[in-house]
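Morning!

As promised:
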Amino acid sequence: QQQVKQSPQSLIVQKGGISIINCAYENTAFDYFPWYQQFPGKGPALLIAIRPDVSEKKEGRFTISFNKSAKQFSLHIMDSQPGDSATYFCAASTGRRALTFGSGTRLQVQP
Amino acid sequence: AAGVIQSPRHLIKEKRETATLKCYPIPRHDTVYWYQQGPGQDPQFLISFYEKMQSDKGSIPDRFSAQQFSDYHSELNMSSLELGDSALYFCASSFTGELFFGEGSRLTVL
């Protein structure tokens, strides 16, 4: 049973558009919610992360929105670029415990 | 900046052989995590170490074992390899809870 559910499985966006990926979790003990970007054959790279005491965090073109009551969080990529084409994973953890990953979203940004 | 170093990057083994993967965490990071990622799958947590002690255990097969040494590097030992063990194996290290991943070791079992 996936503890962190991610959607959509794949996403095609035009260059300059907004990419939106959603995640939902069940474990209310989770207190750390990162997003990772992964290119084929490479390790996941930390993109942006949020803790439940804030509802939104923005870093450059990347924004996390967090809804604690709904147990949902999402990644918005503004002005999407072809170089953003990769697989994106949401994740969650508690304290020093290991991350539990979502199933991933394959993003393709078309020129 | 220093990153997580994994070796070897690629490894080819026969069924029933053994393999050892090594991980060198970012300096001053006290926690190491091992993950397994199959093709098109999300990373699956195997095991972690905090200050050289096993701290958490995930879906690690009994055929696998791991340890963290006094210099904080970690090794994942895999025995009686099966075809299904073919995957990318990632090591990640952390100090504050943010996990930083290495480039991975690709294991192919023939």
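The CA atoms of residues 1 and 55 of chain A lie 27 Å apart.

Hope this helps with the figure draft.
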